[in-house]
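Help needed: design a sequence for this.
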């Protein structure tokens, strides 16, 4: 089973993407389940197959330990890590090819806590893949794009898993906007030119160094473009996972 961790800033569309990818996979006869790792979420746009709220609920933890929402989230992720064997058993018992794992709303709760290492290690050390979801409204300005990639890089270097950046909600962009962001990822000189127009000379220098470092480390940071609303681009995500795990060969359809 391949474990796909869906991370990214609050509101970028992680939960919607989780469901959209499952739907795309199911439409194409691949077995995929969804896992909710957020003990505090109230409304999820899908029905998770495995849900940590069956073990811990944020509200209960807040009451039992007299904690505020952030303290309770932190304690909850430690508690979840301590139950990870049982959670894994439930995931494994579903016998799917893919487990798509929706992580808590606030990025730092998952990305920058040690309990997430225990969770990832406890679920799947070898067959993990991480998708970093970005909202296009920030990505559409050159300096916003660089900021998002910087945040993403810090998540990438934290876990060091096979990784993909995803610009979500492209149904909200027109073609010329998609073209512009794509051109920044394909030809960094275009990004420098646009940063110069934004009079962001310091960011330009920074971006230059960052992309140089990524290139010399062999890290591919080019984003894929998707819409979790109309499923555009989901095939590219699937192909990217395939490329990572089976040298490009399709897993057997069921
Ligand atoms: N138009 C459009 N809206 C989207 C898309 N994906 C998500 N949204 C909307 O973006 C908002 C946030 O989506 P969520 O999936 O809840 O985002 P999230 O990252 O899980 O949010 P938190 O877990 O609360 O941080 C919702 O209103 C979604 O309907 C998309 O591809 N297109
Ligand atoms: Mg969510």
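Sure. Designed sequence:
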């Amino acid at each position: 089973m391949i474990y796909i961790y869906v991370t990214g800033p609050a509101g970028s569309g992680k939960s919607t993407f989780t469901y959209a990818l499952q739907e795309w996979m199911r439409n194409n006869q691949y077995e995929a389940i969804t896992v909710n790792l957020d003990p505090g979420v109230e409304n999820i746009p899908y029905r998770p197959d495995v849900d940590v709220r069956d073990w811990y609920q944020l509200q209960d933890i807040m009451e039992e330990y007299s904690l505020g929402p952030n303290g309770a989230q932190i304690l909850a992720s430690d508690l979840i890590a301590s139950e990870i064997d049982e959670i894994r058993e439930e995931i494994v018992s579903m016998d799917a090819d893919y487990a798509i794992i929706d992580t808590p709303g606030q990025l730092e709760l998952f990305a920058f806590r040690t309990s997430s290492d225990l969770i990832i290690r406890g679920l799947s050390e070898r067959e993990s893949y991480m998708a970093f979801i970005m909202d296009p409204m920030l990505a559409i300005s050159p300096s916003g794009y660089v900021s998002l990639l910087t945040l993403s890089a810090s998540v990438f270097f934290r876990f060091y898993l096979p990784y993909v950046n995803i610009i979500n909600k492209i149904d909200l962009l027109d073609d010329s906007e998609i073209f512009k962001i794509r051109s920044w990822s394909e030809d960094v000189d275009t990004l420098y030119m646009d940063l110069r127009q934004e009079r962001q000379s310091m960011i330009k220098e920074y971006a230059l160094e960052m992309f140089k470092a990524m290139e010399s480390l062999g890290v591919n940071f080019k984003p894929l473009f998707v819409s979790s609303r109309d499923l555009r681009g989901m095939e590219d995500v699937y192909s990217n996972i395939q490329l990572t795990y089976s040298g490009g060969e399709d897993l057997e359809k069921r």
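Residues 10-16, 105, 168-169, 171-172, 227-229 surround guanosine-5'-triphosphate (ligand 1) (CB under 6 Å).
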